[in-house]
C-alpha cells in the first residue's frame, strides 16, 4: 500500500510517502513561510524524489486538526480533490493522535498535546490495548482544548488513575503545567514536529484493521477536526 501523508496543522508541516509501514521519503521544513503555502511545492518535490505520482497513491492520510485553521483547510482541500479525482480512500487523523503514535510501543497510554494559544492546550489521550501494531491507537474520551490545570485533570480522569506519557510539541509549556499541577504517573517528552510519517502509519493501521482503530472516509465525508471554534465563528455566533 502506497500512502501519501500530509500535515498542514502548523508552520512546520510535513509530507511523507510510505509503503505500508516503511517510510520511503519525507519532506519537512521550518521556513518562515507557512507550510500551507508550500504544500504543493513540497508534494511535487516528494514525488520527484521517489519517482511516485499522486495518481499512484493507494491511501491519503491527512491531519484534520487541531492547529492552524487555514493550514487545516488547505490540507483538506488538496486531499479532497485528489481523493475525488483518483477515487481513493482517506484516513482522517488527529494531529494529537499522530503525536501519540510517535511514542515507544511500550507505552500503553499516551496523550498528544499542543499549544492552543490563549493560555490553553489541545490534548487527547490514546491507548494501545493489545494493538496489532504501534500506530493502531484508540482514543479515550474526546480531544479537548482547556487551560493547563483543567487539561491535566481531564487526562488524569480519562486515564483512570493509570500513569501516562505526554507527547507534545510544546514541551516547556507542558512541563511547567506538570510542575504547577502534578499528576501522579504522568511525564512529558518532546514530540517530533514532523508528523507526516506518524500520520501515514496511523492511516495504515486504519486501512488494515478496520473501524476498530478508526474508519476510512472519502472525499465527501472528509472533514476538519478543529476541536475549538475559530475566532470568526465565535464572533459571528456570539453577536
Give a quick precis of the structure.
This protein is α/β, with parallel strands linked by helices and 239 residues long. The protein has seven helices and ten strands.
What is this structure's SSE topology?
Layout: E1 2-7, E2 14-19, E3 22-28, H1 35-50, E4 59-63, H2 69-86, E5 90-93, H3 95-101, E6 109-117, E7 120-127, E8 138-146, H4 148-159, E9 164-168, H5 171-180, E10 186-190, H6 196-209, H7 231-237
Parallel strand pairs: 1-4, 4-5, 6-9, 9-10
Antiparallel strand pairs: 1-2, 2-3, 6-7, 7-8
Helix pairs in contact: 1-2, 3-6
Number of helices: 7
Radius of gyration: 17 Å
Major β-sheet annotation? 5 strands, mixed
CATH topology of the largest domain: Nucleotidyltransferase, domain 5
SSE topology string: EEEHEHEHEEEHEHEHH
CATH architecture of the largest domain: 2-Layer Sandwich
Strand content: 25-35%
What does this 3D model show about the protein?
This protein has about 240 residues and is α/β, with parallel strands linked by helices. It has 7 helices and 10 strands. Residues about 230-235 have low confidence and may be disordered. The chain is globular, with a radius of gyration of 17 Å. Helix content is about 35%, strand content about 25%. It folds into 2 domains: about 1-95 and about 195-235, Nucleotidyltransferase, domain 5; about 95-190, 2-Layer Sandwich (Nucleotidyltransferase, domain 5), CATH 3.30.420.
List keywords for this structure.
Nucleotidyltransferase, domain 5; 2 domains; 5-stranded mixed sheet; 239 residues; single chain; 10 strands; alpha/beta
Amino acid at each position: 500500500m502506497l500512502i501519501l501523508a500530509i500535515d498542514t496543522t502548523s508552520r512546520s508541516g510535513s509530507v511523507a510517502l510510505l509503503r505500508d509501514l516503511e517510510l520511503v521519503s519525507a519532506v519537512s521544513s521550518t521556513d518562515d513561510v507557512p507550510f500551507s503555502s508550500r504544500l504543493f511545492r513540497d508534494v511535487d518535490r516528494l514525488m520527484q524524489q521517489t519517482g511516485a505520482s499522486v495518481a499512484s497513491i493507494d491511501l491519503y492520510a491527512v491531519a484534520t486538526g487541531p492547529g492552524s485553521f487555514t493550514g487545516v483547510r488547505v490540507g483538506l482541500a488538496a486531499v479532497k480533490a485528489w481523493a475525488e479525482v483518483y477515487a481513493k480512500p482517506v484516513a482522517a487523523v488527529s494531529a494529537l493522535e499522530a503525536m501519540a503514535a510517535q511514542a515507544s510501543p511500550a507505552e500503553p497510554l499516551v496523550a498528544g498535546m499542543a499549544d492552543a494559544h490563549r493560555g490553553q492546550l489541545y490534548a487527547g489521550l490514546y491507548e494501545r490495548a493489545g494493538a496489532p501494531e504501534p500506530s493502531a491507537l484508540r482514543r479515550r474520551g474526546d480531544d479537548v482544548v482547556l487551560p493547563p490545570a483543567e487539561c491535566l485533570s481531564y487526562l488524569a480522569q480519562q486515564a483512570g488513575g493509570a500513569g501516562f506519557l505526554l507527547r507534545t510539541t510544546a514541551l516547556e509549556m507542558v512541563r511547567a503545567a506538570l510542575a504547577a499541577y502534578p499528576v501522579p504517573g504522568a511525564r512529558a517528552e518532546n514530540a517530533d514536529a514532523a508528523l507526516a510519517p506518524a500520520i501515514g502509519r496511523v492511516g495504515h493501521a486504519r486501512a488494515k484493521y478496520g473501524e476498530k482503530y478508526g474508519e476510512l472516509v472519502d472525499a465527501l465525508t472528509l472533514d476538519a477536526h478543529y476541536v475549538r471554534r475559530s475566532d470568526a465563528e465565535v464572533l459571528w455566533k456570539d453577536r
